[in-house]
Amino acid sequence: MTHSENGFFNEFGGKYVAEVLRRPLDELEVAFKEAMADSSFVSELETIQRDYIGRETPLLYAKTATEILGGAQIYIKLEGLANTGAHKINNAIGQCLLAKRMGKKRIIAETGAGQHGVATAAACAKLGLDCTVYMGEVDVRRQQPNVAAMEMYGAKVHPVTSGSRTLKDAVNEAMRDWAANPDTTHYVLGSALGPAPFPDIVREFQSVIGKEVKRQAQERNLDVEALIACVGGGSNSIGFFAPFIDEQKPRLIGVEAGGIGPGVGENASRMTGNASRDGILQGYKSRFLLDEDGQALPTRSISAGLDYCGIGPQLASLGKSGRIEFTSALDDEALNAVKFFAKNEGVLFAMESAHAGAEAIKLAPTLPKDKAIIVNMSGRGDKDIFITCPVFRPAEWKEFLISELERLNDSKDIHEAELMRK
Q1: Are residues 137 and 151 in the same domain?
Q2: Rounded mean pLDDT of the chain?
Q3: CA distance 232 to 116
Q4: Which end of the chain has less Cβ packing within 10 Å, N or C?
Q5: CB-based burial of residue 325 (10 Å sphere; 0-12 exposed, 13-18 middle, 19+ buried)?
Q6: 149 and 275 fall within a common domain
Q7: Does the structure show a pLDDT above 70 at 198?
Q8: What is the largest CA-CA distance in the chain?
Q9: Annotated catalytic residue: which of 79, 110, 333, 345?
Q10: Is 37 helix (H, G, I), strand (E, B) or coil?
Q11: What are the φ/ψ torsions at residue 289 (nearest 5 degrees)?
């Protein structure tokens, strides 16, 4: 099922929200359908995609990786080369352009790893819109480079201190803001989840990835066995998979965050984990990590963007039907994938995308050499320096941080001394 029916993908999806949000959601659905049927809106979006985002992004043949692993040819869709460093800009630009068409001048967003926040802040700067980003306090600490980038683009970043202080709580705060300010504000939800019509909207704006991949693969006459993408909420994966959903081939493989193990609170595996169940949370029905009372369980992942207790309803439906195969990668496997593709292909995967890379490393040797697998590198790893450096080079990183702290303290002392002299 490519599109929802009345907001549902079989039994998943829906619009489970307070009455105050029903009107803005209904208005958004009408505005979205009208915009996508308007050739002038579509043309403007395509121009921005080309000139600002930098589409289309390349499909790289990973020659050295293929030779080392043996088996299938590995190709990498380099979404990390899109402006702002990840696939998130595709949806952010689309929704901000839609909001502007609707007369909404204030944008709010939630973010986990920070890439959606950066993309939304950049889109707002480009289109002249006010921007506020909600981000869990835990994620603010581990993704400081992205926080700095958002502020450079002019966004106001609000650390969320409630709950687990991660993505789930940032979504809650953004929803509260939107409920209080529906007439002036549009909520740019960053993943293919939440109440209808967001799963359809996000998939549509992200489907540019899959459309390019389909064309690029046909131009090279590739016999594609599988497409592999990491899955948090699911925006990169559903956009990557979209043009292939109603076809029998290729295999579609979604890789969740296996964290540090199978125990409760040790991972974020909604489709493959042992604590997953159907539930309704944050306005939609899907598969979630929930306790017996229906409350969200704690999650864990080295990647902030996959550290979420739920999954988009369309992905849940496609997983249940078997069209998408779900697996998971441990933190250590994702870190190894970062090193492997950096060393052998000169490509630095984001920690989220590295989960897909880890599955490619396992799958390729099991397939014939005339087959191809395509990995969606949904983002590049610049943002993860505060996560990867303490693992890959702990002594040097510690020395660097100490020296930086000393330098900052020295500059503060000098500044204070100058103020006293004045």
Answers
A1: yes
A2: 94
A3: 13
A4: C
A5: middle
A6: no
A7: yes
A8: 76
A9: 110
A10: coil
A11: -90, 105
Question: pLDDT per residue over 68-125, tens digit each?
Answer: 999 999 999 999 999 999 999 999 999 999 999 999 999 999 987 788 999 999 999 9
88 is catalytic: yes
Between CA 422 and CA 401 the distance in angstroms is 32
| Residues contacting 160, CB < 8 A, separation 6+ | 134, 135, 136, 137, 169, 170, 172, 173
Q: Which domain holds residue 29?
A: 21-52+87-199
Query: Do residues 147 and 210 both lie within one domain?
Result: no
**Same domain membership, residue 63 and residue 113:** no
235 and 91, same structural domain? no
Do 235 and 368 reside in the same domain of the chain?
Answer: yes
Nearest to 185 by CA among 201, 172, 174, 199: 174
Residue 417 covered by a domain: no
The answer on 340 and 245 residing in a single domain is yes
What is d(CA 314, CA 3) in angstroms, rounded to the nearest whole number? 8
Q: Which residues pair with 257 in a beta bridge?
A: 268, 329
Q: What is the pLDDT of residues 206-228, one digit of tens each?
A: 999 999 999 999 999 999 999 99
Catalytic residue among 88, 168, 285, 383: 88
175 within a domain of the structure (yes/no): yes
User: In the annotation, is 378 catalytic?
Assistant: yes
Residue 276 in 3-state DSSP? Answer: strand
CB 287 within 8 A of CB 311: yes
Decide if 399 is inside a domain: no
Band of pLDDT at residue 171, cut at 50, 70 and 90? confident
Report, as an integer, the average pLDDT of 193-215: 97
Tell me whether residue 369 is in a domain: yes
Question: Do 76 and 130 reside in the same domain of the chain?
Answer: no
pLDDT in tens, 174-183: 999 999 999 9
- Pick the catalytic residue from 204, 328, 378, 383: 378
Per the annotation, the verdict on 110 as an active-site residue is: yes
Q: What domain count does the chain have?
A: 2
